Amino acid sequence: MMGLQVVRAEAGAEFELPISIMQSILRNLTLTVPMLCLQLTSLIPTGWLPAFVTEVFNILEAVYAIIVFPLESYRAYSREDSLRLGDKLAHTRIIESLTNFDNFLSRQKN
């Protein structure tokens, strides 16, 4: 919808190859896994973890939300190639793609 596409960052490729499922998972690890792991602490019943462990998780969650996520976003915005840390990890890159909305979400008629 935004006219962007994630492709493999292979040198010398004749045409742009779509990313694999594993590359998609690796690419999104930097955004999803830290926050998911930290949110899991809210699912653990009170009293199972020592209070200091819960506090450490709360501090890590705040650091991630206030520092790491904005830095990851800034990195993608400020770089000429728009690569995030997840793109480097998964060997992917973002390119402009042709978006055609003439037949967007079309339904086939029988």
Give a structural overview:
This protein has 110 residues and is mainly alpha-helical. It is 49% helix and 9% strand. It has helices at 21-40, 51-78, 85-90; strands spanning 4-8, 92-96. A two-stranded antiparallel sheet has the order 1-2. Helix 1 runs antiparallel to helix 2 (51-78). The protein starts with a strand and ends in a 14-residue tail after the last strand. The model has no long low-confidence stretch (mean pLDDT 79).
| Oligomerization | single chain
Strand order of the largest sheet: 1-2
Would you identify the regions where 5 or more consecutive residues have pLDDT less than 50?
none
Q: Distance between the terminal alpha carbons, to the nearest Å?
A: 27 Å
Structural class: mainly alpha
DSSP strand (E) fraction?
A: 5-15%
Shape estimate: elongated
Order of helices and strands: EHHHE
Rg for CA atoms: 19 Å
| Strands, total number | 2
Instruction: Report the average pLDDT across residues.
Output: 79
What composes the largest sheet?
A: 2 strands, antiparallel
Helix content: 40-55%
What is the count of DSSP helices, taking H or I runs of 4+ residues? 3
